[in-house]
Write a structure and sequence with these properties.
The protein is built from 16 helices and 17 strands. The protein is an alpha+beta fold.
Protein backbone atom coordinates (compact mmCIF):
# COMPACT_ATOMS: atom_id res chain seq x y z
CA UNK A 1 0.00 0.00 0.00
CA UNK A 2 1.49 3.36 -1.06
CA UNK A 3 2.09 6.03 1.53
CA UNK A 4 -0.40 8.91 1.55
CA UNK A 5 1.10 12.39 1.63
CA UNK A 6 -0.57 15.77 1.73
CA UNK A 7 1.33 17.96 -0.73
CA UNK A 8 -1.05 20.90 -0.46
CA UNK A 9 -4.52 21.56 0.88
CA UNK A 10 -7.37 24.02 0.73
CA UNK A 11 -9.40 24.92 3.82
CA UNK A 12 -13.14 25.60 3.57
CA UNK A 13 -14.94 26.90 6.63
CA UNK A 14 -18.49 28.11 6.98
CA UNK A 15 -19.83 29.61 10.20
CA UNK A 16 -23.04 29.18 12.12
CA UNK A 17 -23.41 31.94 14.69
CA UNK A 18 -26.06 32.12 17.39
CA UNK A 19 -26.66 35.66 18.64
CA UNK A 20 -28.88 36.28 21.66
CA UNK A 21 -30.90 39.45 21.11
CA UNK A 22 -31.15 42.00 23.91
CA UNK A 23 -34.92 42.49 23.89
CA UNK A 24 -36.59 43.19 27.22
CA UNK A 25 -38.74 40.05 27.01
CA UNK A 26 -38.37 36.59 25.48
CA UNK A 27 -39.19 35.52 21.94
CA UNK A 28 -42.73 34.21 22.35
CA UNK A 29 -43.76 35.31 25.84
CA UNK A 30 -43.74 38.41 28.04
CA UNK A 31 -41.45 36.90 30.68
CA UNK A 32 -38.21 38.86 31.22
CA UNK A 33 -35.27 38.06 28.95
CA UNK A 34 -32.86 37.06 31.72
CA UNK A 35 -30.08 35.94 29.38
CA UNK A 36 -29.81 38.08 26.24
CA UNK A 37 -30.56 41.34 28.10
CA UNK A 38 -28.01 40.61 30.84
CA UNK A 39 -25.22 43.20 30.86
CA UNK A 40 -21.64 42.84 32.04
CA UNK A 41 -21.59 43.34 35.80
CA UNK A 42 -25.26 42.44 36.27
CA UNK A 43 -26.17 39.74 38.77
CA UNK A 44 -27.98 36.90 36.97
CA UNK A 45 -31.31 35.81 38.44
CA UNK A 46 -31.69 32.65 40.46
CA UNK A 47 -32.00 29.48 38.32
CA UNK A 48 -35.46 28.73 36.89
CA UNK A 49 -37.00 32.06 37.91
CA UNK A 50 -37.31 33.67 34.45
CA UNK A 51 -39.90 31.12 33.32
CA UNK A 52 -43.63 30.98 32.79
CA UNK A 53 -46.22 28.55 31.44
CA UNK A 54 -45.16 29.09 27.82
CA UNK A 55 -41.47 28.44 28.53
CA UNK A 56 -42.42 25.32 30.49
CA UNK A 57 -44.59 24.06 27.62
CA UNK A 58 -47.70 23.60 29.74
CA UNK A 59 -50.86 22.45 27.93
CA UNK A 60 -53.09 25.10 26.35
CA UNK A 61 -50.55 27.94 26.41
CA UNK A 62 -50.08 29.86 23.14
CA UNK A 63 -46.99 31.76 21.94
CA UNK A 64 -47.09 35.47 21.01
CA UNK A 65 -44.37 36.84 18.71
CA UNK A 66 -41.96 39.52 19.98
CA UNK A 67 -42.05 42.27 17.31
CA UNK A 68 -38.88 43.95 18.62
CA UNK A 69 -36.93 40.72 18.10
CA UNK A 70 -38.10 40.59 14.48
CA UNK A 71 -36.98 44.20 13.98
CA UNK A 72 -33.58 43.46 15.50
CA UNK A 73 -33.19 40.49 13.16
CA UNK A 74 -34.12 42.56 10.10
CA UNK A 75 -31.68 45.34 11.05
CA UNK A 76 -28.89 42.77 11.39
CA UNK A 77 -29.83 41.21 8.06
CA UNK A 78 -29.74 44.61 6.36
CA UNK A 79 -26.30 45.32 7.85
CA UNK A 80 -25.10 41.97 6.49
CA UNK A 81 -26.32 42.86 3.01
CA UNK A 82 -29.18 40.35 3.08
CA UNK A 83 -32.46 40.33 1.22
CA UNK A 84 -35.42 40.55 3.57
CA UNK A 85 -38.31 38.15 3.08
CA UNK A 86 -41.62 39.97 2.66
CA UNK A 87 -43.41 36.82 3.82
CA UNK A 88 -42.08 34.29 6.28
CA UNK A 89 -43.44 31.85 8.82
CA UNK A 90 -42.57 29.93 11.97
CA UNK A 91 -41.76 26.22 12.06
CA UNK A 92 -41.50 23.59 14.76
CA UNK A 93 -38.15 21.80 14.99
CA UNK A 94 -38.87 18.62 16.92
CA UNK A 95 -36.41 17.01 19.28
CA UNK A 96 -36.41 15.83 22.85
CA UNK A 97 -33.88 17.18 25.32
CA UNK A 98 -34.23 18.09 29.01
CA UNK A 99 -33.52 21.79 28.35
CA UNK A 100 -36.47 22.07 25.94
CA UNK A 101 -39.68 21.30 27.88
CA UNK A 102 -42.00 21.63 24.85
CA UNK A 103 -40.04 18.91 22.99
CA UNK A 104 -39.80 21.25 20.01
CA UNK A 105 -38.11 24.54 19.21
CA UNK A 106 -39.91 27.33 17.37
CA UNK A 107 -37.61 28.24 14.49
CA UNK A 108 -37.65 29.02 10.75
CA UNK A 109 -36.95 26.35 8.16
CA UNK A 110 -37.55 26.99 4.46
CA UNK A 111 -38.48 30.70 4.61
CA UNK A 112 -35.81 32.50 6.66
CA UNK A 113 -36.36 36.15 7.49
CA UNK A 114 -33.01 37.22 5.95
CA UNK A 115 -31.16 35.49 3.09
CA UNK A 116 -28.63 35.84 0.23
CA UNK A 117 -26.39 38.44 1.85
CA UNK A 118 -22.93 39.74 0.97
CA UNK A 119 -20.86 41.23 3.77
CA UNK A 120 -17.61 43.03 2.98
CA UNK A 121 -14.98 42.23 5.59
CA UNK A 122 -12.08 44.69 5.63
CA UNK A 123 -8.79 42.83 6.15
CA UNK A 124 -5.10 43.70 5.90
CA UNK A 125 -5.12 42.08 2.44
CA UNK A 126 -8.09 44.13 1.27
CA UNK A 127 -11.83 43.54 1.17
CA UNK A 128 -13.03 39.96 1.56
CA UNK A 129 -16.61 39.21 0.53
CA UNK A 130 -18.43 36.79 2.82
CA UNK A 131 -21.68 35.30 1.54
CA UNK A 132 -24.48 35.06 4.07
CA UNK A 133 -26.71 32.08 3.31
CA UNK A 134 -29.42 32.99 5.81
CA UNK A 135 -30.21 34.62 9.14
CA UNK A 136 -33.33 33.36 10.87
CA UNK A 137 -35.01 33.77 14.23
CA UNK A 138 -35.68 31.07 16.78
CA UNK A 139 -35.91 30.59 20.53
CA UNK A 140 -32.95 29.46 22.60
CA UNK A 141 -33.01 26.32 24.73
CA UNK A 142 -32.24 26.14 28.46
CA UNK A 143 -28.88 25.23 29.92
CA UNK A 144 -27.79 21.87 31.29
CA UNK A 145 -25.48 22.11 34.31
CA UNK A 146 -23.16 19.32 35.40
CA UNK A 147 -22.37 20.80 38.78
CA UNK A 148 -24.54 22.60 41.32
CA UNK A 149 -24.37 26.40 41.87
CA UNK A 150 -21.19 27.16 43.77
CA UNK A 151 -19.29 24.44 41.93
CA UNK A 152 -20.49 21.53 44.03
CA UNK A 153 -20.29 18.16 42.26
CA UNK A 154 -23.52 16.25 41.59
CA UNK A 155 -24.56 12.98 40.04
CA UNK A 156 -26.14 13.46 36.63
CA UNK A 157 -27.19 16.89 35.36
CA UNK A 158 -29.56 19.68 36.37
CA UNK A 159 -31.30 22.19 34.13
CA UNK A 160 -31.71 25.97 34.31
CA UNK A 161 -34.52 27.23 32.05
CA UNK A 162 -33.78 30.95 32.45
CA UNK A 163 -32.19 30.95 28.98
CA UNK A 164 -35.05 28.99 27.37
CA UNK A 165 -37.12 31.15 25.05
CA UNK A 166 -34.47 33.87 24.63
CA UNK A 167 -34.67 35.44 21.12
CA UNK A 168 -31.89 33.86 19.10
CA UNK A 169 -30.68 34.96 15.67
CA UNK A 170 -28.89 32.19 13.79
CA UNK A 171 -26.58 33.49 11.06
CA UNK A 172 -25.22 31.00 8.53
CA UNK A 173 -22.41 31.85 6.12
CA UNK A 174 -21.23 30.03 3.02
CA UNK A 175 -17.84 28.22 3.34
CA UNK A 176 -15.93 31.37 2.39
CA UNK A 177 -13.20 31.29 5.04
CA UNK A 178 -9.86 29.76 4.10
CA UNK A 179 -7.97 30.08 7.38
CA UNK A 180 -8.58 30.07 11.14
CA UNK A 181 -7.49 33.73 11.26
CA UNK A 182 -10.14 34.80 8.75
CA UNK A 183 -12.81 32.95 10.75
CA UNK A 184 -11.82 34.81 13.92
CA UNK A 185 -11.65 38.16 12.09
CA UNK A 186 -15.22 37.79 10.81
CA UNK A 187 -16.46 36.74 14.26
CA UNK A 188 -14.93 39.84 15.84
CA UNK A 189 -16.40 42.10 13.16
CA UNK A 190 -19.81 40.51 13.70
CA UNK A 191 -19.57 41.19 17.44
CA UNK A 192 -18.79 44.85 16.73
CA UNK A 193 -21.71 44.98 14.29
CA UNK A 194 -24.43 43.64 16.63
CA UNK A 195 -23.19 45.83 19.47
CA UNK A 196 -23.12 48.85 17.16
CA UNK A 197 -26.67 48.19 16.01
CA UNK A 198 -27.78 47.77 19.63
CA UNK A 199 -29.45 44.41 18.92
CA UNK A 200 -27.24 42.34 21.25
CA UNK A 201 -24.98 42.95 24.22
CA UNK A 202 -22.52 40.66 22.43
CA UNK A 203 -20.74 39.63 25.64
CA UNK A 204 -18.92 36.39 24.88
CA UNK A 205 -18.44 35.44 28.54
CA UNK A 206 -22.20 35.69 29.10
CA UNK A 207 -23.01 33.42 26.15
CA UNK A 208 -24.58 36.13 24.00
CA UNK A 209 -22.67 34.84 20.96
CA UNK A 210 -21.81 31.23 20.21
CA UNK A 211 -19.84 30.14 17.14
CA UNK A 212 -19.95 26.81 15.32
CA UNK A 213 -17.45 26.44 12.45
CA UNK A 214 -18.20 23.84 9.76
CA UNK A 215 -14.85 22.63 8.48
CA UNK A 216 -13.57 20.46 5.69
CA UNK A 217 -10.32 20.23 3.76
CA UNK A 218 -9.52 19.53 0.09
CA UNK A 219 -6.25 17.59 0.20
CA UNK A 220 -4.02 17.25 -2.84
CA UNK A 221 -1.79 14.15 -2.68
CA UNK A 222 1.57 13.39 -4.30
CA UNK A 223 -0.19 12.18 -7.46
CA UNK A 224 -2.22 15.34 -7.89
CA UNK A 225 -5.49 13.76 -6.80
CA UNK A 226 -7.85 15.78 -4.59
CA UNK A 227 -9.46 14.18 -1.53
CA UNK A 228 -12.32 16.03 0.17
CA UNK A 229 -12.85 15.36 3.85
CA UNK A 230 -16.34 15.23 5.36
CA UNK A 231 -17.65 18.37 7.06
CA UNK A 232 -17.30 18.48 10.83
CA UNK A 233 -19.09 21.05 12.97
CA UNK A 234 -17.53 22.19 16.24
CA UNK A 235 -20.26 23.17 18.69
CA UNK A 236 -20.69 26.13 21.02
CA UNK A 237 -17.39 28.03 20.95
CA UNK A 238 -17.67 31.28 22.88
CA UNK A 239 -14.34 33.05 22.57
CA UNK A 240 -12.39 34.29 19.55
CA UNK A 241 -9.16 32.62 20.62
CA UNK A 242 -10.87 29.25 21.11
CA UNK A 243 -12.65 29.64 17.76
CA UNK A 244 -9.31 30.14 16.02
CA UNK A 245 -7.52 27.37 17.94
CA UNK A 246 -10.30 24.83 17.47
CA UNK A 247 -10.54 25.53 13.73
CA UNK A 248 -6.79 25.20 13.31
CA UNK A 249 -6.68 21.94 15.27
CA UNK A 250 -9.57 20.42 13.33
CA UNK A 251 -7.92 21.23 9.98
CA UNK A 252 -4.74 19.50 11.10
CA UNK A 253 -6.69 16.57 12.57
CA UNK A 254 -8.53 15.89 9.31
CA UNK A 255 -5.29 15.97 7.31
CA UNK A 256 -3.53 13.71 9.83
CA UNK A 257 -6.41 11.20 9.86
CA UNK A 258 -6.38 10.95 6.07
CA UNK A 259 -2.59 10.50 5.95
CA UNK A 260 -2.65 7.81 8.65
CA UNK A 261 -5.80 5.86 7.69
CA UNK A 262 -7.01 7.09 4.31
CA UNK A 263 -10.38 7.92 5.89
CA UNK A 264 -12.14 11.12 4.89
CA UNK A 265 -14.42 10.86 7.91
CA UNK A 266 -18.19 11.20 8.21
CA UNK A 267 -20.33 14.29 8.59
CA UNK A 268 -20.08 14.74 12.37
CA UNK A 269 -20.46 17.05 15.33
CA UNK A 270 -17.36 17.70 17.43
CA UNK A 271 -16.68 19.44 20.72
CA UNK A 272 -13.64 21.33 22.02
CA UNK A 273 -11.66 20.11 25.02
CA UNK A 274 -10.04 23.21 26.50
CA UNK A 275 -7.88 21.18 28.88
CA UNK A 276 -6.43 18.95 26.14
CA UNK A 277 -6.57 21.68 23.49
CA UNK A 278 -8.15 19.33 20.97
CA UNK A 279 -11.47 18.52 19.33
CA UNK A 280 -13.38 15.31 20.12
CA UNK A 281 -16.19 13.43 18.39
CA UNK A 282 -19.67 13.86 19.88
CA UNK A 283 -22.09 12.33 17.38
CA UNK A 284 -22.79 11.88 13.70
CA UNK A 285 -24.55 14.87 12.18
CA UNK A 286 -28.34 14.98 11.98
CA UNK A 287 -30.08 15.84 8.72
CA UNK A 288 -33.01 18.24 8.38
CA UNK A 289 -35.56 15.45 8.06
CA UNK A 290 -34.53 14.13 11.48
CA UNK A 291 -36.15 17.19 13.05
CA UNK A 292 -39.55 16.68 11.37
CA UNK A 293 -40.06 20.38 10.59
CA UNK A 294 -43.62 21.59 10.02
CA UNK A 295 -45.30 25.03 10.18
CA UNK A 296 -46.25 26.09 13.70
CA UNK A 297 -50.05 26.15 13.81
CA UNK A 298 -50.16 28.58 16.75
CA UNK A 299 -48.31 31.48 15.13
CA UNK A 300 -49.31 33.81 12.30
CA UNK A 301 -46.89 34.32 9.38
CA UNK A 302 -44.85 37.54 9.29
CA UNK A 303 -45.36 40.04 6.47
CA UNK A 304 -42.80 42.83 6.12
CA UNK A 305 -44.28 45.93 4.48
CA UNK A 306 -42.32 48.46 2.44
CA UNK A 307 -42.95 51.16 5.06
CA UNK A 308 -41.71 48.97 7.90
CA UNK A 309 -38.59 47.96 5.96
CA UNK A 310 -37.79 51.58 5.03
CA UNK A 311 -38.08 52.64 8.66
CA UNK A 312 -35.63 49.91 9.75
CA UNK A 313 -33.19 50.75 6.93
CA UNK A 314 -33.09 54.35 8.18
CA UNK A 315 -32.33 53.13 11.70
CA UNK A 316 -29.33 51.08 10.53
CA UNK A 317 -27.49 54.09 9.05
CA UNK A 318 -23.70 54.07 8.63
CA UNK A 319 -22.09 50.74 9.49
CA UNK A 320 -19.07 50.45 11.82
CA UNK A 321 -16.66 49.42 9.03
CA UNK A 322 -17.61 52.50 6.96
CA UNK A 323 -17.36 54.78 10.01
CA UNK A 324 -13.97 53.30 10.89
CA UNK A 325 -12.63 54.02 7.38
CA UNK A 326 -14.00 57.58 7.50
CA UNK A 327 -12.25 58.24 10.80
CA UNK A 328 -8.95 57.06 9.32
CA UNK A 329 -9.20 58.82 5.95
CA UNK A 330 -11.09 62.01 6.78
CA UNK A 331 -10.04 62.64 10.39
CA UNK A 332 -6.53 61.19 10.35
CA UNK A 333 -6.98 58.81 13.28
CA UNK A 334 -4.87 55.69 13.69
CA UNK A 335 -6.56 52.38 12.77
CA UNK A 336 -6.53 51.37 16.46
CA UNK A 337 -8.20 54.58 17.66
CA UNK A 338 -10.67 54.53 14.77
CA UNK A 339 -11.68 50.94 15.55
CA UNK A 340 -12.19 51.72 19.25
CA UNK A 341 -14.45 54.68 18.47
CA UNK A 342 -16.40 53.11 15.61
CA UNK A 343 -17.19 49.79 17.28
CA UNK A 344 -20.02 51.28 19.34
CA UNK A 345 -22.53 53.66 17.79
CA UNK A 346 -23.17 55.72 20.92
CA UNK A 347 -19.41 56.09 21.54
CA UNK A 348 -18.84 57.20 17.95
CA UNK A 349 -21.69 59.71 18.17
CA UNK A 350 -20.25 61.01 21.47
CA UNK A 351 -16.84 61.51 19.82
CA UNK A 352 -18.31 63.30 16.80
CA UNK A 353 -20.14 65.79 19.01
CA UNK A 354 -16.80 66.73 20.60
CA UNK A 355 -15.28 67.25 17.15
CA UNK A 356 -18.32 69.32 16.10
CA UNK A 357 -17.59 71.65 19.03
CA UNK A 358 -14.27 72.58 17.41
CA UNK A 359 -11.90 70.16 19.14
CA UNK A 360 -9.36 68.57 16.72
CA UNK A 361 -10.14 64.91 16.03
CA UNK A 362 -6.91 63.55 17.48
CA UNK A 363 -7.38 65.58 20.66
CA UNK A 364 -10.99 64.38 20.92
CA UNK A 365 -9.81 60.78 20.45
CA UNK A 366 -7.32 61.17 23.33
CA UNK A 367 -10.05 62.57 25.58
CA UNK A 368 -12.32 59.65 24.66
CA UNK A 369 -9.54 57.22 25.59
CA UNK A 370 -9.53 58.60 29.13
CA UNK A 371 -13.32 58.36 29.29
CA UNK A 372 -13.31 54.76 28.00
CA UNK A 373 -10.81 53.76 30.69
CA UNK A 374 -13.16 55.13 33.32
CA UNK A 375 -16.18 53.39 31.80
CA UNK A 376 -14.30 50.07 31.84
CA UNK A 377 -13.36 50.55 35.50
CA UNK A 378 -16.96 51.31 36.41
CA UNK A 379 -18.35 48.59 34.10
CA UNK A 380 -20.69 51.09 32.49
CA UNK A 381 -21.06 52.44 28.97
CA UNK A 382 -19.46 55.78 28.11
CA UNK A 383 -22.89 57.30 27.65
CA UNK A 384 -24.05 56.12 31.08
CA UNK A 385 -21.30 57.73 33.17
CA UNK A 386 -22.84 61.19 33.58
CA UNK A 387 -20.22 62.99 31.46
CA UNK A 388 -21.53 64.75 28.35
CA UNK A 389 -19.79 65.57 25.03
CA UNK A 390 -19.97 69.26 26.00
CA UNK A 391 -17.94 68.56 29.13
CA UNK A 392 -15.18 66.85 27.17
CA UNK A 393 -15.33 69.50 24.45
CA UNK A 394 -14.71 72.19 27.10
CA UNK A 395 -11.70 70.25 28.43
CA UNK A 396 -10.41 69.97 24.86
CA UNK A 397 -10.82 73.70 24.31
CA UNK A 398 -8.92 74.46 27.52
CA UNK A 399 -6.08 72.19 26.40
CA UNK A 400 -5.96 73.79 22.94
CA UNK A 401 -5.82 77.26 24.49
CA UNK A 402 -2.96 76.19 26.76
CA UNK A 403 -4.93 76.54 30.00
CA UNK A 404 -4.79 72.81 30.73
CA UNK A 405 -1.96 70.35 30.30
CA UNK A 406 -2.48 67.83 27.48
CA UNK A 407 -2.36 64.98 29.94
CA UNK A 408 -4.64 61.99 30.42
CA UNK A 409 -4.07 62.28 34.18
CA UNK A 410 -5.32 65.88 34.19
CA UNK A 411 -8.39 64.93 32.16
CA UNK A 412 -9.16 62.05 34.49
CA UNK A 413 -8.82 64.21 37.62
CA UNK A 414 -11.46 66.57 36.27
CA UNK A 415 -13.77 63.78 35.13
CA UNK A 416 -13.38 61.89 38.41
CA UNK A 417 -14.42 65.05 40.27
CA UNK A 418 -17.45 65.40 38.01
CA UNK A 419 -18.51 61.81 38.71
CA UNK A 420 -17.66 61.67 42.40
CA UNK A 421 -18.60 65.13 43.65
CA UNK A 422 -20.81 66.85 41.10
CA UNK A 423 -22.25 64.22 38.76
CA UNK A 424 -23.94 65.77 35.75
CA UNK A 425 -22.53 69.30 35.94
CA UNK A 426 -25.12 71.88 34.96
CA UNK A 427 -22.94 73.63 32.36
CA UNK A 428 -19.63 72.91 30.64
CA UNK A 429 -18.31 76.20 32.07
CA UNK A 430 -18.26 74.55 35.48
CA UNK A 431 -15.43 72.46 34.07
CA UNK A 432 -13.25 75.58 34.45
CA UNK A 433 -14.36 75.97 38.07
CA UNK A 434 -13.53 72.33 38.77
CA UNK A 435 -10.10 72.66 37.15
CA UNK A 436 -9.39 75.83 39.14
CA UNK A 437 -10.43 74.15 42.39
CA UNK A 438 -8.01 71.29 41.63
CA UNK A 439 -5.21 73.74 40.80
CA UNK A 440 -4.97 72.51 37.21
CA UNK A 441 -5.50 75.77 35.31
CA UNK A 442 -2.25 76.98 33.75
CA UNK A 443 -1.36 80.63 33.32
CA UNK A 444 -0.74 81.91 29.80
CA UNK A 445 0.26 85.37 31.05
CA UNK A 446 3.55 85.96 29.23
CA UNK A 447 4.48 88.82 31.56
CA UNK A 448 4.41 86.49 34.58
CA UNK A 449 6.23 83.75 32.66
CA UNK A 450 8.96 86.18 31.47
CA UNK A 451 9.46 87.40 35.03
CA UNK A 452 9.89 83.84 36.30
CA UNK A 453 12.37 83.08 33.52
CA UNK A 454 14.43 86.20 34.38
CA UNK A 455 14.56 85.17 38.03
CA UNK A 456 15.69 81.61 37.24
CA UNK A 457 18.37 82.71 34.76
CA UNK A 458 19.73 85.27 37.23
CA UNK A 459 20.15 82.70 40.00
CA UNK A 460 21.25 79.70 37.88
CA UNK A 461 24.24 80.68 35.72
CA UNK A 462 25.56 77.08 35.36
CA UNK A 463 22.69 75.55 33.29
CA UNK A 464 22.53 78.80 31.30
CA UNK A 465 26.22 78.48 30.47
CA UNK A 466 25.77 74.78 29.61
CA UNK A 467 22.98 75.58 27.17
CA UNK A 468 24.94 78.30 25.45
CA UNK A 469 27.87 75.91 25.09
CA UNK A 470 25.67 73.49 23.15
CA UNK A 471 24.20 71.17 25.79
CA UNK A 472 20.55 70.88 24.74
CA UNK A 473 19.61 68.93 27.89
CA UNK A 474 20.22 72.11 29.88
CA UNK A 475 17.09 73.61 28.30
CA UNK A 476 14.92 70.97 29.95
CA UNK A 477 16.55 71.65 33.28
CA UNK A 478 15.84 75.37 32.96
CA UNK A 479 12.21 74.73 31.99
CA UNK A 480 11.84 72.54 35.06
CA UNK A 481 13.28 75.26 37.30
CA UNK A 482 10.87 77.85 35.93
CA UNK A 483 7.89 75.51 36.35
CA UNK A 484 8.95 74.75 39.91
CA UNK A 485 9.46 78.39 40.81
CA UNK A 486 5.88 79.38 39.97
CA UNK A 487 3.15 76.73 39.85
CA UNK A 488 0.43 76.70 37.24
CA UNK A 489 2.47 77.76 34.22
CA UNK A 490 2.02 76.32 30.76
CA UNK A 491 5.10 74.18 30.11
CA UNK A 492 4.92 74.57 26.34
CA UNK A 493 4.71 78.36 26.61
CA UNK A 494 7.52 78.44 29.16
CA UNK A 495 9.75 76.53 26.76
CA UNK A 496 8.87 78.82 23.85
CA UNK A 497 9.52 82.02 25.85
CA UNK A 498 12.75 80.58 27.25
CA UNK A 499 14.04 79.76 23.76
CA UNK A 500 13.23 83.27 22.60
CA UNK A 501 15.03 84.72 25.61
CA UNK A 502 18.11 82.58 24.99
CA UNK A 503 18.17 83.40 21.28
Amino acid sequence: MSERKCVSYRVLVGLEIHVQLSTRTKMFTGVVNASGALKAGDTPPEPNTAVDEQVLGLPGVLPVMNKRAVEYAIKTGLALGCKIARFTKWDRKSYYYPDLPKNYQISQYDLPLCYDGIFELITEKGIKKVRIRRAHLEEDAGKLLHEAPGGYPIEGSIVDLNRAGTPLLEIVTEPDFDSPASVSAFAQELQRLVQYLGVSEGQMQLGHMRFEPNINVHITDQNGQVHKTAITEIKNLNSFSVLEKATDYEVRRQIREWEETGSLGRKSTYGWDELKQETFHQRDKEEAHDYRYFPDPDLMPVEVTEEWLTELKNQVGELPSARRERYIRALGLSPTDAAALASDKSTGDFFEQIVSAGVPAKRASTLMEALREMSNERVRKVTELGVTPDHLARIGQLIESGQLAASKEVTRKILDTILNEAAGLATPEQIVQTAQKLGLIQTTDTTAIDAAIEAVLASNPKPLQDYRSGKQTALGALVGMVMKSAKGMNAKLVQERLKQKLG
